[in-house]
Amino acid sequence: MVLAGCARDAIVEERALHENFFRDFGIDERSWAAARPSPTCLGYGHWLLSTGCTGGFGEAVAALLPCYHVYWQVGCHLHREARRPNPYEAWIETYADPGFGKIVREVAAIADAAAVAAGEEERLRMREAYLTATRWEWLFWDAAWRCEGWPD
């Protein structure tokens, strides 16, 4: 049920957060609907889907966990350090919220339980999935920092 709730939240809550940003920054629906994901965003998303479809349960959860960890850590850091008012305050508050921290701990506990139940081979795949996803997270944030786009 935790993971199903996380999937629902990713669709409902993040979409609402993004729609508010679009409104606040003057981006009309037509523009955001036509936007293409960056190469890194597309690659990361496809890697997650591939891992979820071809790996075991533990590997899939391990692949998702860095997103939770990174967003929680970044949200908490920015909550402490960012000046206010801040145009990204809603994002910061969302990911620094103690409720989100609770979800991060729940997903980590699911991954830990899967690792305990897994054999050595699956634990190695879980470890590799976690490390790869962490690298993708770094690339994702770096791509946003660099305003990565597709070549013309």
What can be said about this structure in brief?
The chain has one domain: Up-down Bundle (Heme Oxygenase, Chain A), CATH 1.20.910.
Q: Could you name the CATH class?
A: Mainly Alpha
Please name the CATH architecture.
Answer: Up-down Bundle
- Tell me the number of strands: 0
User: Which stretches are poorly predicted, pLDDT < 50 over at least 5 residues?
Assistant: none
User: How can the largest sheet be summarized?
Assistant: none
Count of distinct structural domains: 1
Share of helix, binned? over 70%
Secondary-structure-based class equals mainly alpha
CATH superfamily annotation: Heme oxygenase-like
Tally the helices: what do you get?
7
| Average pLDDT figure | 94
Q: How is this fold's topology laid out?
A:
Elements (H helix, E strand, L loop, with lengths): L1 H23 L4 H6 L4 H16 L2 H25 L7 H8 L1 H20 L2 H26 L7
Helix pairs in contact: 3-4, 3-7, 4-5, 4-6, 4-7
